[in-house]
Structures
1.
Amino acid sequence: MSTHRHSELEPIADALGDSARLNWAELAREHPESAAVLERLHALEKLAEAHRRARDEARDAPGSPPMAFRWGPLDVHERIGEGAFGEVFRARDPVLRRDVALKLRRADAAGPASAWLEEARRLARVSHPNVIAVLGVDEHDGRAGLWTELVRGETLEARLAREGPMPAAEVAVVGVDLCRALAAVHAGGVLHGDLKLSNVMREGGEGVPHPGRVVLMDFGSGQDGPPASPTTWTPLSAAPEVLRGGPVYARSDQYALGALLYRLLTGRHPIEAGSLAELIERAGSRTPPLRDLRPDLPPALHDAVLRALAPEPEARHANLAAFERALSAAIGARDGQVRSRHIVALIAAALVLGVAATLVFVRVRPAPPTAPAAGTAATPVPSAPAPTALSASATLLRRTPSGSEALVDGGAVRAGDRLVLQFRSPEPVWLYVFNEDAGGAASALFPLPRLATTNPLAAGREHQLPGMLDGRAFAWQVGEGSGSETFLVVAGRQAVPAAEALAARLSPASPASRGATRAERGVETLVEEPSPGEAAGALVKLERQLTQAGPGVWVWRLRAIHDRP
Amino acid sequence: MHTPPVPSPLESTAVLLDRVRTGDARARDRLVRRYLPLLQAWAHGRLPRRARGMADTADIVQVVLYRALTRMEEFEYRHEGAFFAYLRQIVLNAVREEIRRSVRRPSTSDVGDEAPDEGMSVVEQAIGREMLGCYEHALMRLTPEQREATILRLECGLSYVEIAEAMGRPSANAARMLVARALVPLAEAMREHAPAL
């Protein structure tokens, strides 16, 4: 094959590697001289799809992998962790058919099992997307245990060891999440007591429900309010008052959060010392040298972190909400901009890309609706949730003039990027896509009343959203902005009332959203402009509501960081 | 003062293999944890339905993986990240042997009652035996790095970030380019091996 023809087909291979849906019949018509090679590329797509199906089957197969032993209601599989308190296992709830993490207390662990169980019950009162969800507490076969959601991914400690200090905006985003998580913990009457990088996970990996979610994991002292023993804290993260053995406050957790963010920014502890006595002396009198280590930090972020690390509790942020606001403001102010309008617009990709990008459009264009629309609309929907968890897969793709790539959590977006969501579920679903910026301005990205693509989405085929109108594929376009953009994707076997309500509130047609349709350089553009703060925290609230929604609802979240071109 | 480097939780396979060669049991455990679930899921797609019980798959893959890691002298890797392709080939041979044995094994039911596709794997059903054979031949025409990356992406569904980590590539984009540039030559080689469609 000639080099020219080779290079013609590479973008198609690129899209195939990205798992983009390709219209093979149309591609064969456009490249008749390469029909045989295209047929093999199509076979490769089928091969990848078959392997994906086999993986799904293997994951759901009963008895997979072999069970090690049974504890109460759970089938216990391999050990995944160990600590002074006991062991952590991956286990499976055979009734709900979901994997969980089971912590079993050592029979010879210090203290009565009843106290340990009581602490676990207190933790179970806390419900927040950024706090690990305790699913059950019990005692069987002489061993006390609690089971939680199983979070797959890596700890922030592992992330730091692998990639070194984080970009400023990413640290601020983690800080905002952890402020919210700690506030929820405190509202439950519990102090965390051992906040550190190894106790915070970032969810990731194939098929996880909320890639990129920051999750507060192990609780150290887990004290039911003050006082707490300093022996349960990690000294290099502990506030001076904890090190001195004095009273412990919610602001002691705030200090530990400041120390965590400081490490993410610099790779170092804020105060380092050769002995505990030296550490106590230094922590009570020194300001950590943050500016010297990260001269690139926005002043607002620098000040927000150092204030949390103030030696005296009363000099720290008044509360976690204030700390969160300071971090959010630091992100928003990074580019010297104040967000005045929302940044996501909907643009007809075909028109915007123009002639030079024809090939790009061809390879990203979704297959025509081979399944009749009437069949889609008539898809029967169960009247009650089935006992098995709804499964789905979603990929947010960023289209650039040079190609497309799957957006990973924490990845960068720039003004002008076009985004599409590839979504597939083995069942017909109602799908909702929302977006929220760092300032809390939210908008509904799907469904949109003006598009032909609408709910419910048909089962078993890949949908490319936001969808189609008059035969043209649409994309969301990223506008000017700073800080982070959170995308929340919700799927349900039936319409999800909480998501419907939020979508209605944020819809461009709703008076609440102040949306506007206008013509811009000849391209019809739909711009949503909710006023800043109008729906602040709307996605977090929705996600919190959905934690109790049961197996018929599937939620996926991804956060992207604005990057200047 | 010299400070030892912090061990990365995501060391590349080549680094772990070097440590396995020196008898490092923890490195071996890490490789097992990395590759066992991957290989088990992969083999699930290549075993015929009637031989695809999880116990069968798990047994075959575990035996192959542990045997491979205790006989490292048989694996001469010249390129970073050819290890999965090596393991996959051994598992593939074991799967073929399993298929042969399952054919020889007396069936308790009337063969005529058996569904016609019970002897085929999920992947064979999807693209046909001949096409799968062409694919396997064509894979050998790729460079070891291209082969490894293609297998990890298409057959194992790893993200580009995961492929970069496993293969010691500098970025997800580098892994993505590796895959994208392998697929057209792979399809061309498949055409050369295949009978006319």
2.
Amino acid sequence: MEAFINHRGLVAPLDRANVDTDAIIPKQFLKSIKRTGFGPNLFDEWRYLDHGEPGQDCSRRPLNPDFVLNQDRYQGASILLARRNFGCGSSREHAPWALLDFGIRALVAPSYADIFYNNSFKNGLLPVVLPEETVDRLFQAVETSPGYTLEVDLPAQVVRTPEGEELAFGIDEFRKHMLLEGLDEIGLTLQHADAIRAYEQRRRTEAPWLFAAREGSGT
Amino acid sequence: MSGKTLYDKLWDSHVVRNNPDGTAIIYIDRHLVHEVTSPQAFEGLRLADRRPWRIDANLAVADHNVPTTDRSAGISDPVSRLQVDTLDSNCRTYGITEFDMNDPRQGIVHVIGPEQGATLPGMTVVCGDSHTSTHGALGALAQGIGTSEVEHVLATQTLVQQKSRSMLVRVNGELGPGVTAKDMVLAIIGRIGTAGGTGYAIEFGGDAIRSLSMEGRMTVCNMAIEAGARCGLIAVDDVTIEYFRGRPFAPRGELWERAVAYWRTLHSDADAEFERVVELDAATIEPQVSWGTSPEMVAPVGGKVPNPFSETDDTRRQSIARALDYMALEPETPITDIPVDKVFIGSCTNSRIEDLRAAAEVIRGRRVADSVRLAMVVPGSGLVKRAAEAEGLDRVFLDAGFEWREPGCSMCLAMNADRLEPGERCASTSNRNFEGRQGQGGRTHLVSPPMAAAAAIAGHFVDVRTF
Ligand code: SF4
């Protein structure tokens, strides 16, 4: 996984609540068996005027001029400002993959859905939680000042505004550490392989039916 | 000290190790695998030169992409076919049990798990699919995970997690006639909102939950994720235990007796404390119809579509206005004035035998309205389909003008050929009414199977209790 330490970037505001993962990356693109290449189809139904299908050349499709990420002033944005309960719905990890592939490195919102929040960390995408009033204020700032950037500083756990204001955010120690180091979580867990084996052995005696997995083998 | 919740008991019995940072390594008893969220995980394993930790803990099935029409010619969409073929070949390579597309036991992953007894009370169950919460109805700790976690579970048989907070949703009293588990869970989501359960494990309790069948309980837990909770739970009782007797993967003989003795302990202690408690009175719940683009946007069938101008919170007002615009509905339209173009009875929420019986009951001897372009029933599994045919339910649906299809996810998410066209309005027994969920530009109204059936006959929503 790619590490996340510090990132300054242009902010794009997505002003709607409960943005679901079906909207972030519609299902027809989930047929891919790869982790990359989802960027051109990020927010596909909002971003283009036609119906998107896998394998199209997206550079030739008609863009929806009203959609925020299509506006000139937000080209090259790498921080997405969003509203409450961002990423609700399906567990598809294609949602963080698509955001990253598009070039988004950090999100700022008042809250996220659990599975999406978790999936983001696994991919080096940092979902920052700030209070609703602060997010409101940032929406106003972004809209009134073209070229508005933010700096997300993970070690210090602050978001810095261009005026130098520091907005503190919370994050679990575990997730922070994994992101800062870009660690392979499977490798870390496998350091405890003996504990897993010991647990399994104990459970085989305590609850043997859990290990009689094949059909009819419980007899 | 207060007693333990059901969630505490399930969690505690699966902790492999408590990490110093407050997370824990949790052992996973059953991993369900489907074609959409697994290919990248298997690829990750291969790239890191790792093997699955415990092959027999996995059970795979193709469900999201499969056609619901004649399958003898295979899948015609090459992209869908590649995904299903990839699952088949990964399962073959590692020796994972798979119900392939033509297996008589094939079906939606959350229908076949309990049906086979492959998911059992007391287990930890995961799947790369958010509706894994369904299996919580059995008294299992069941959670949806992303693809990185699918790979983690394949490689280590564990997950690294932080314990959730606990919420009890208690539904007291009795549901009225014609009101189903689906109406109950829609009413709950309408009450607490789609983020109401975020960070919580929700246990559903109370008389109204206790008197539900296993099918009804699965419907309720299925939609826990729609309330933001990664898992929903219901305590084990006689209904649970009887449901599992004789299922193919369930224990038998002496092991069955031992398992049952343990399962009987799977309930919250009388003095257990929850961090949040929500109470509802079942008798006040009417059949529900969703009118918007989020499952919390529901109204009782006797009600009206809301008016955004009566909402004071800005974000909510905008959400309502946007939803009405997408749904092409005027504020304050009576729910029963909303016409439907298509009707879908299926999905992991409502495609079990009891759901099909309840829908058939409404339809028997009637005809689908001429204005309805397509009404379809997609059973949750091959076994549900055969059971329904043995009871003659297929005839009831076919005679009324419904299509009777092969099992799979189908128009719940429209990854196969079954979908809404732009602007089409659907009465659907599925779980998500997001924009474009059932096809780009499609408009979904979430309802129970009897309500969907009645809408098919009438051509618009009607109160099934007086239909
Ligand atoms: S039926 Fe729908 S919700 Fe259920 S697993 Fe399939 S796509 Fe997901």
